[in-house]
């Protein structure tokens, strides 16, 4: 979660694809692939230019420097293959400072990928595949076609909490609560159909082939995404290998791997530029950035905001630029902020009003004051009937200064909101020494030496758990695949 204010996004229906780990998935079957694309129109260019700055803000900002320049170059090269424009300069490609696996594009030639997704890739062809898939959505005008049908979907990063659906049902208040919670999401986007996802996938493979890249790169990057999803589930203590139903908009990418591989058969082998790619991304920030707060085990620590809290046992957290989600099977919560005028009771009441929306008031039974680890705090609970059962909505706020407050907004089945008491009571300030001790993780590209093994190199990963599993997924190692001397690989280490 960044320190910047939580402005609402105005880019509701423009994004062509968000949450690549979600949207590059599950599209089986066949599709009619257009042979050429209509050029970018003046209207599309104006739309893209208008919303581009807001997208950058939603996703942590645009990175600069050699790594960003490299991503831009590869993206512009592959985008030209679409026929949307014949000049590389017609496309704006941005590397975003975000710790979620994400990529998307909007009309007008604007293409985006996050540094975290780039970190998961293992060669330049995979980078071109991801960006080509997103350009494919734009070339096929998928966003415009879905917008015409008004079929909208909301996600929070790579699976953050959605406070609706399974707990709140489909009643109007439940939908209002869900939408209010998602005002802090990274992006409101359209859901694409399976045929549209497959069409974009096939277009991306075509672009790879015509650009001289290995067309099999689409299947290998999808495989890495599937393996990362499985690893995330394992590390977060979830029994499944996909996002919970209430936090997912698309099936797992594992189902896409074979289809993408079959589409690449019969095409040229092409190049991957593996060593060049790994050399160019060496030193890239990996995972959470201290400026947006970091998740360490069960705790979230923000060195700039000088705070720390801990998720309850059995819950996991997802950090985004706008909020921190705390997810579990019993309930979900978000940590975020709102405008503060110096009165905690008024602050809590205003959050409830925003959650209830315009159509139905949401008022807590009472608002009580307390102190948590020396912090002035206030909280309230509202019980909501969703037609079949009842749920409790809790807002718990903390004052950090006369003009700064933060809060949790949580939801759980009626009478079970106490599951979040450890979370609410864990909030505390941190010292400057604790803040200074937060050091980001970065990629370190090394050359395998004779005698090096997966176990030996994995032991250098800057994690207390899952070192071998993280290393293998990060480097796209499958089955019993081992290392060979002279091979470049990525490890994650603490930066300086």
TrEMBL record:
GO terms for cellular component: membrane. Residues 1-30 form the signal peptide. It holds the Pfam family LysM. InterPro entries: LysM, LysM_dom_sf, Mito/Outer_Membr_Metalloprot, Peptidase_M48. One of its GO terms (biological process) is proteolysis involved in protein catabolic process. The keyword Zinc-finger does not apply. One of its GO terms (molecular function) is metalloendopeptidase activity. Keywords: Hydrolase, Metal-binding, Metalloprotease, Protease, Signal, Zinc. PROSITE patterns: LYSM, PROKAR_LIPOPROTEIN. Transmembrane segments: none annotated. This is M48 family metalloprotease. It comes from Parapontixanthobacter aurantiacus.
């Amino acid at each position: 979660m960044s320190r910047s204010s939580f402005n609402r996004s105005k880019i509701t229906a423009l994004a062509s694809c968000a949450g690549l780990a979600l949207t590059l998935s599950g599209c089986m079957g066949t599709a009619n692939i257009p042979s050429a694309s209509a050029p970018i129109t003046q209207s599309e260019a104006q739309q893209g230019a208008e919303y581009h700055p807001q997208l950058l803000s939603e996703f942590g900002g645009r990175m600069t420097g050699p790594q960003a320049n490299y991503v831009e170059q590869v993206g512009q090269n592959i985008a030209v293959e679409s026929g949307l424009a014949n000049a590389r300069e017609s496309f704006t490609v941005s590397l975003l400072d975000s710790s979620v696996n994400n990529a998307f594009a909007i009309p007008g030639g604007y293409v985006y990928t996050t540094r975290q997704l780039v970190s998961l890739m293992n060669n330049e062809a995979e980078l071109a595949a991801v960006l080509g898939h997103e350009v494919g959505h734009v070339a096929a005008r998928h966003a415009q076609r879905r917008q015409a049908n008004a079929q909208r979907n909301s996600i929070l990063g790579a699976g953050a909490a959605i406070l609706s659906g399974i707990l709140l049902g489909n009643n109007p208040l439940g939908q209002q609560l869900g939408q209010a919670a998602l005002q802090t999401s990274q992006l409101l986007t359209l859901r694409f159909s399976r045929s549209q996802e497959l069409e974009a996938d096939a277009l991306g493979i075509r672009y790879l082939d015509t650009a001289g890249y290995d067309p099999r790169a689409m299947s290998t990057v999808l495989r890495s995404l599937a393996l990362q999803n499985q690893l995330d589930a394992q590390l977060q203590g979830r029994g499944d290998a996909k996002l919970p139903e209430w936090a997912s908009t698309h099936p797992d990418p594992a189902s896409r791997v074979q289809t993408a591989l079959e589409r690449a058969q019969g095409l040229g082998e092409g190049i991957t530029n593996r060593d060049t790619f790994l050399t160019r991304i060496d030193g890239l920030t990996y995972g959470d950035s201290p400026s947006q707060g970091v998740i360490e085990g069960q705790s979230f620590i923000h060195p700039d905001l000088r705070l720390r809290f801990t998720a309850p046992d059995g819950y996991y957290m997802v950090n985004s630029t706008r909020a921190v989600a705390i997810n579990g099977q019993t309930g979900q919560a978000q940590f975020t902020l709102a405008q503060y005028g110096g009165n905690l009771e008024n602050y809590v009441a205003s959050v409830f009003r925003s959650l209830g929306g315009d159509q139905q008031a949401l008022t807590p039974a009472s608002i009580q004051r307390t102190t948590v680890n020396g912090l002035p705090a206030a909280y309230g609970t509202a019980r909501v009937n969703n037609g079949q059962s009842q749920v409790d909505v809790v807002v718990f706020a903390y004052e950090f200064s006369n003009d700064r407050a933060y809060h949790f907004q949580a939801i759980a089945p009626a009478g079970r909101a106490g599951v979040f008491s450890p979370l609410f009571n864990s909030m505390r300030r941190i010292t400057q020494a604790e803040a200074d001790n937060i050091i980001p993780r970065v990629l370190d590209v090394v050359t395998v030496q004779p005698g090096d093994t997966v176990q030996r190199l994995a032991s250098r990963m800057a994690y207390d758990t899952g070192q071998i599993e993280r290393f293998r997924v990060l480097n796209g190692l499958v089955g019993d695949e081992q290392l060979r001397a002279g091979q470049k690989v990525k490890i994650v280490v603490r930066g300086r």
